[in-house]
Amino acid sequence: xxGVSFYLVAASTIRLVGDSLFEDTIRSGMTSVSExxxxxxxxxxxxxxxxxxxxxxxxxxxxxxxxxVVDMDGKVQFDTFDEQCGTRLSLGEVHTLLRGxxxxxxxxxxxxxxxxxxxxxxxxxxxxxxVSRIWMGCFASALISEGERAGALVLVxxxxxxxxxxxxxxxxxxxxxxxxxxxxxxxxxxxxxxVTRPVKELSAGIERMSRGDYSRRVHVPGKGEMAxxxxxxxxxxxxxxxxxxxxxxxxxxxxxxxxxxxxxxKILVESMIxxxxxxxxxxREFLGDINKEIDRLSSVVGDLLTLVHIxxxxxxxxxxxxxxxxxxxxxxxxxxxxxxxxxQEIAVSIEDECEMxxxxxxxxxxxxNIIENGIKYTPDGGKITVxxxxxxxxxxxxxxxTGVGIPQxxxxxxxxxxxxxxxxxxxxxxxxxxxxxxxQQIIRLHAGSVTVQSERGKGTTFTVQLPVK
Length: 469
Fold this sequence. Notes:
Elements: H1 2-41, H2 49-63, E1 66-70, E2 76-79, H3 92-98, E3 104-112, H4 124-127, E4 133-145, E5 148-158, H5 160-210, H6 225-274, H7 280-311, E6 320-323, H8 324-341, E7 345-350, E8 355-358, H9 360-376, E9 383-391, E10 394-401, H10 423-428, H11 435-445, E11 449-455, E12 459-467
Parallel strand pairs: 7-9
Antiparallel strand pairs: 1-2, 1-5, 3-4, 4-5, 6-8, 9-10, 10-12, 11-12
Helix pairs in contact: 1-5, 5-6, 6-7, 7-11, 8-9, 9-11
């Protein structure tokens, strides 16, 4: 399109230059022939043929052209070149004068160049023009003698110099056009390569991602739109990669959590099947262990379903006006027997009732999971402290214990799914590794936050902040 546009501009420029040059030539030729016809018309019938011919020769030399006098029949009576005398001219511009249609006229014709040729052009191999003939301008004006039209005066001038100038300009413009076209094509190719390279990079990255390879990263230098798109793609690819790894880890952990109690149940059941004389006390113990493993399985499946609902955005909060302090008291009351069994003390301090618009059931689960965690990981005779107060527009619930604590390197991962600080101890206490992850998700659904502070051997403190009305 750029090439075509440049060609049209070049062609228009050449046409304008040609029109300007030929207008000057036509104006000059028509002025000369009109003045000569006015002068010669006064003498055409009043002096001898030789005298008139000499006058015609003198006028031709001063005008720098060839003059012909044509009678009303179209025959040449005088020719300063003595070549056409007695012949009939077939020029259209002469016949229009002889028919009385115009007083003057002009035309351009290819004529014998008498050894002169047109200037060569780079387009000659394509146009196949005849350069042996040159362009001549024929300017005709009526000859008026004694008030009547006696014929026509024809001035023949070479316009080949003008044509050669136009040819030269045309060749120059074509040369510039060719160079510009090559330059534009090279520039377009360079720009296209610069523009398409990041597109190809992105396409390759997308293709590899579609095949399951999420490790591919796209490098696009600069700060333009393509660089921003590449950065967005890399961020998306990293998120998908992390999500894929998390999914695989989740499936692996879930399978392991389900497989362990199933394997235990299988061993216990097989022992009962193949041991016919098993004592009733041992059989009762085995059945109790099977019941515990089934409860553990149910707990894992329930937690998994809760997380699936949260991840799929299917979990809906059943919000209502509630008093958060009542939920805390009820949860402590439910877990007190478990703490007393281990000789532990649960101290409760409530400074504000913290009325809010929330889901009572989900917040009860949050309280239960955190307090139960404190009971499990606090040695017998330890203490769990539960405090609730209001800070600005937030309700703040703090649950502290005097348990084993959490190492600093494990703190960032305590809310990860299936993560355990002490895996063997967690299995003994029946934990699934999902409770704190569920807590975090529920708190986020309530537009709140949960944090943890701990020091190994000195206990752990969970802090929950929730917006109140």
